[in-house]
Structure formats: C-alpha cells, structure tokens
Write a structure and sequence with these properties.
CATH topology of the largest domain: Double Stranded RNA Binding Domain
Shape: globular
Radius of gyration: 18 Å
Strand content: 25-35%
Helix content: 25-40%
Number of helices: 3
Strand order of the largest sheet: 1-2-3-4
CATH architecture of the largest domain: 2-Layer Sandwich
CATH superfamily of the largest domain: Ribosome hibernation promotion factor-like
Number of strands: 8
Mean pLDDT: 82
Low-confidence stretches: 102-118
Order of helices and strands: EHEEEHEHEEE
Number of domains: 2
Length: 179
C-alpha cells in the first residue's frame, strides 16, 4: 500500500508514521488489489485537538474519514474504525443492490443552517478532487457513504457536471445545468 503521511504544521516522527502504516494495514483485508491512488493521511493539531484525515479510493469509490481527539494515536484508531465502517456499509449496499435488483435504500438526515446575516457568510474551505464519470445511482451511494447533503459528479450518460442533493423530504434532487 502506498501511504502518504503529511503533517499540517507539525512534524511526523518515524514512530507515528509506523503506527499509521500498521493501523491502515488493517484495511488491506478489504482490497482485492491495492487502491488506485495513494492513501492520503493528513495529521494536524487544531485548538488542542489532534486531527487525522484519511482519503483513499477503492474500486472507483472515494472513502474519506476525519477524527479529532486529545491524543494523535487515539485519533488514528478512531479514523481507521470509521473507514472500516464506511467500507463495510458500502459492501453491504452493493450486496443488497445485487440481491434486490433495483431496490434503493436511503439514509435520511435533517439539515440545519446557522441563522447568520448574509454579511457574516463566507467561504471557509475549498476542496479540489478528481471527478470520475458515474451514473446517478452510483452518485447517490457515494453521497450516502460520505454522509454529505450534496454530491458533485460527472454524469456518465450526459458527460456533464451534475449536482445531486438531498431534499428536506429525504428524497434526492438532481441539478443538470443547461449551457
């Protein structure tokens, strides 16, 4: 496994790097082949908490987990547990999808937005990520897996960028831009 460990404003000791390698080694049992891309691990300390963020792509599906705790080693343990849960959940969904031939499961979540004035709203984070073509059903699974309320993807049928989002009713909406 190709694991890239990065420290965000902190040094990575060999012991910490070895611990990350050992813990992420638990995930190898889920791989038929090594992940398509390197596994990216970012370690940082924010406001006294040790934060670990891991991203890996397996069979075209992006898995991402993030955890914070008072101890870096505990954060690593927690993030690996979370990744295992995501992978198991994904495998279950795939198996159920084949068993039920088209029966779709939904995870409903309610969303709330802070009641701030418009002048207080600002962009606090920008993310860049590779976008792979997929169908709408696969995008729904990916969105549920990541626990997001929306998902940007390239629609394999139209070859255009689409946005899938969760409506207040729990159903999904799809935005297809017209140019």
């Amino acid at each position: 496994m190709n694991i890239q460990v990065h420290g965000d404003h902190m040094g990575i000791t060999p012991a910490l790097h070895d611990f990350v390698d050992k813990k992420l080694g638990r995930l190898e049992k889920y791989f038929d082949a090594p992940p398509e891309r390197e596994i990216s691990v970012t370690l940082s300390v924010e406001k006294g908490f040790h934060k670990v963020e891991v991203m890996l792509q397996l069979h075209g599906v992006l898995f991402r987990a993030e955890e914070k705790s008072a101890d870096m080693y505990a954060s690593i343990d927690l993030v690996v547990d979370k990744l295992e849960q995501q992978i198991n959940r994904h495998k279950s969904k795939i198996n159920q999808r084949f068993r039920n031939q088209g029966l779709k499961t939904r995870i409903q979540s309610s969303t709330g937005m802070d009641t701030r004035e418009e002048s207080e709203l600002r962009v606090v984070r920008t993310k860049r990520f590779p976008v792979k073509p997929m169908d709408v059903e696969e995008a729904m699974m990916q969105m549920d897996l990541l626990g997001h309320d929306f998902y940007v993807f390239t629609n394999a049928e139209t070859e255009e960028v689409n946005v899938l989002y969760r409506r207040k009713s729990g159903d999904y909406g799809l935005i297809e831009p017209q140019y």
